[in-house]
Amino acid sequence: MKPIEITKGIYNVGVNDWNISDFHGYSTPYGTTYNAYLVTDEKIVLIDTVKSEFTDELIYNISQVVDPKNIDLVISNHTEMDHSGGLARVMHRIGEDKPLYCSKMGLKNLPRHFRQKWNYKAVENGEDLSIGQRTLTFLETRMIHWPDSMFTYLKEDKILFSSDGFGQHYAGHEKFDDQVSEDIMIHAQKYFANILLLYSSHIRKLLENITELGLEFKIICPDHGIIWRKDPAKIIEAYVKWCRQEPKKKAIVVYDTMWHSTEKMANAIASGISDEGIEVRPMYLRKWHRSDIMTEVLDTKAIVIGSPTLNNGLFPTVSDFLTYMKGLKPQNKFGAAFGSYGWSGEAVKLIQKELEAMKFEMLEPGFRIQYVPDDEGLDECYQFGRRIGKAISG
Ligand code: FEO
Q: pLDDT value at position 282?
């Protein structure tokens, strides 16, 4: 990727990672980007780096704008290694004594990653740094996405360098929001649902603080995906909505199956929900990746989960999904459980227990059918779905 000039003297010198397909458990069929930003003023500033294996490319990109040795200071907005992986080689190249700005938590976390005594400068929330004609303001944004996360705001140009905030795992030839279709919002929603959902309350407070401070954003530059320059308000408004976790009148039926019995139950339940006029999608766990299901969970009211009983427990894919969803702490959900079983039939109770632990409002007692559902059993599933649909309708 060539350096992309965002506005006069400010460049994205990051890289595309076309081939990554799994980002710590999140499926990334479109790859991702690690954006890093070069701000050239009286001082030359590098904001973030890239994953370590892309460091040569980062340094090459920088060198197309300035000699990397002329970088005066580095800002680490976030310690996670998709943004800090290139730091050791960058610091070595530009001079180990150059200042490395980070948050107070960054000061703790960076040495735990790199075991280096760099010239760290821990900043306060709201602290300004003049770099010549321009001023950078540091904004503490704990847990968006790690305790060390911060944003950097360029006052004069009204540009927000937002680290993981407002990102998308999407690599393409397009670099700006005016070059992509509406589909980019699906990538942004997936990113929010899988990376940031459990920090919704932090994000809500941050957005309120931004409003109180009266900060204006002409351009938002995240560390992943496209840059928002045409309509930055669009992604802010989406975050305001997603943080509230106000679901649509919608259900998903997430299941796995051994001999198609739980599958038949899932389809009959979905049919019952649909016949109440509710949007519904059965999601077979060996077809849908957990992270794509989470994207649906974000705006779904009822999560209905089905599992056969395998060796007195849950089917492994169902267990995997429940563990993943539990960690992301979705709120304001209805839940229900079902499944086919042979003799012991523990799975349905185990699903219920997990959904209750997530504070889902359970709509129905768990529903089980032994072995293969007959017509009467499928009608019971359908009626189970109708009742769920009615509850969603309110
Ligand atoms: Fe893109 Fe939390 O790192």
A: 98
Hey, what domains does the chain have and what are their CATH numbers?
A: 4-244 (3.60.15.10), 252-393 (3.40.50.360)
Task: Check whether 8 has a pLDDT greater than 90.
Answer: yes
Within 131-197, where are the H helices? 184-191
Q: How far, in Å, is the centroid of ligand 1 from the Cα of 151?
A: 13
The pLDDT, as a whole number, for residue 81 is 98
Average pLDDT, the chain: 97
Question: Would you say residue 1 has pLDDT above 80?
Answer: no
Residues 265 and 253: their CA atoms lie apart, in Å, by: 10
* Angle at CA of residue 225, ends 222 and 228, nearest 5°: 55
Kindly give the number of the ligand 1 atom that is closest to the alpha carbon of 149. 2
Indicate the SS3 state at residue 310.
strand
Asked whether the beta carbons of 147 and 109 are under 8 A apart, the reply is: yes
Does residue 17's CB lie within 6 angstroms of at least one atom of ligand 1? no
Taking a C-beta distance cutoff of 8 angstroms, is the pair 341, 368 a contact?
A: yes
Closest-CA residue to 302 (of 264, 327, 269, 328): 269
Q: What percent of the chain has pLDDT over 70?
A: 100
Q: Are 56 and 24 in contact (CB under 8 A)?
A: no
